[in-house]
Amino acid sequence: MPHLEAVTIHSRRPSELAPFWSALLGLPIDPADAVAIERGTLAASESVLLGRRDALHVWVSPAEELAPVGGRVHLDVRLDGPADLDRLAALGAVPRGEDPQGRWRVYADPEGNVFCALTGWATEQHST
């Protein structure tokens, strides 16, 4: 049966964007890629692997041309609580908007890729 194996995020500079997504998703950068990033030897044509190939993983892949913002990738990331909003800001995420009912907020990563931060706790607090 078909299944989701990986998510690919196109980027101008994978070596710079991968740490953002690694920290946000809790997926470690592949050790070989981490060494190449640290040494500055990751080739312009190389992707960065987040996680492991034997599980759902993320590729941060180079692209010469990027689709307009909003069309590159769209991830929904479930946050655990309000402290995660501070973590997003510390990682460099930029707020772009939010659901009037408080179920999600829209952010952009450091390259402008839009994603949703699901804030279910906000709805739960308002419903009690």
What does it look like?
The chain is an alpha/beta fold. It is 30% helix and 26% strand. It has four helices and seven strands. The strands form two sheets. The protein has a four-stranded mixed beta sheet with strand order 4-7-6-5, with no helix packed on it. It has a three-stranded mixed beta sheet with strand order 1-3-2, with helices on one face.
Supply the key terms.
single chain, 128 residues, alpha/beta, 3-stranded mixed β-sheet, 4 helices, 30% helix, globular
Tally of contiguous helical segments: 4
Q: Biggest β-sheet: count, sense, barrel?
A: 4 strands, mixed
What is the CA-based Rg, rounded?
Answer: 16 Å
Bin the helical content.
25-40%
The residue ranges in which pLDDT falls below 50 over 5 or more consecutive positions are: none
The end-to-end distance, rounded to whole angstroms, is: 41 Å
SS elements, strand count: 7
Quick recap of the structure?
With 128 residues, the protein is α/β, with parallel strands linked by helices. It is 30% helix and 26% strand.
